[in-house]
Specification:
With 219 residues, this protein is an alpha/beta fold. Helices cover 39% and strands 12% of the residues. It has 8 helices and 6 strands; from the N terminus they run E-H-E-H-E-E-E-H-E-H-H-H-H-H. It has a 6-stranded parallel sheet, with helices on both faces. Helix 5 packs across helix 7. The chain starts with 6 loop residues before the first strand and ends in a 5-residue tail after the last helix. About 18% of the residues have low confidence.
Length: 219
């Protein structure tokens, strides 16, 4: 799916956040519209799009409203860490989980990854999802979290990197700079910097050189 053709449906109750996301997605060239039940006041343009039956490629939804979804589109769930338990038994097709306090780049990356058929999780939510979430009932649906790699000597700890972060690490290991990685992955250079910050935070390495020297990458 082309990056400039993503239709994003918003079920976000807080008006200030909904406006922020609408402006953010519109600036990227995406078509963002509030869905019925979004909360607050819908604009006349939003009502027109709803009545026209415009479908969404990706839904961005408050985590406590996942049960209200009647659309089959994949979902980006918005949460605070304490709300992770809401994911336990939802039937919605949740592909990404974003902390509401994340930077703009996180919301953009999550929607882009989900639209491309991938998953995404805010780095701050990895620990609650992996360790703090109660066991879900049989048949319950959870977002997929890439498993941590097996322990290798010389690494501070086992990171739970996303698929895209592993791609970045692989390209870093080939000697590419941020601009080259951005071109190879068809993403903005600022997104590469965002990934690198997350990777270093998760792995505990201080810089790219240490990352390449001490984190072997397959292939």
């Amino acid at each position: 799916m082309a990056d400039d053709c993503i239709a994003v449906g918003l079920m976000v109750a807080r008006l200030s956040l909904r406006r922020r996301l609408t402006r953010l997605f519109a600036h990227r060239g995406w078509n963002a519209v509030a869905c019925e039940g979004a909360g607050g006041l819908l604009s006349s343009d939003d009502r027109s799009r709803i009545s026209s039956g415009i479908s969404s490629d990706v839904l961005v939804v408050d985590i406590d409203r996942l049960d209200e979804i009647r659309d089959a589109a994949p979902v980006v769930a918005l949460t605070y860490g304490s709300e992770i338990a809401h994911l336990g038994a939802v039937k919605a097709d949740v592909r990404a989980v974003v902390d509401r306090d994340d930077l703009d780049e996180a919301f953009l990356e999550a929607v882009q990854e989900v639209a491309a058929g991938h998953g995404w999780i805010s780095p701050t939510l990895v620990r609650p999802l992996l360790r703090g979430q109660p066991s879900a009932p049989a048949g319950a649906v959870r977002p997929t979290v890439p498993p941590a790699q097996a322990h290798r000597p010389g690494r501070p700890h086992d990171p739970a990197l996303t698929a895209r972060e592993y791609e970045v690490v692989s390209l870093v290991s080939k000697g590419m700079n941020n601009s080259e990685i951005a071109g190879a992955l068809y993403i903005a250079e600022s997104t590469v910097k965002f990934h690198m910050s997350n990777i270093l935070q998760k792995t505990g390495f201080r810089n790219r050189g240490q990352l390449v020297a001490r984190m072997p990458v397959a292939g």
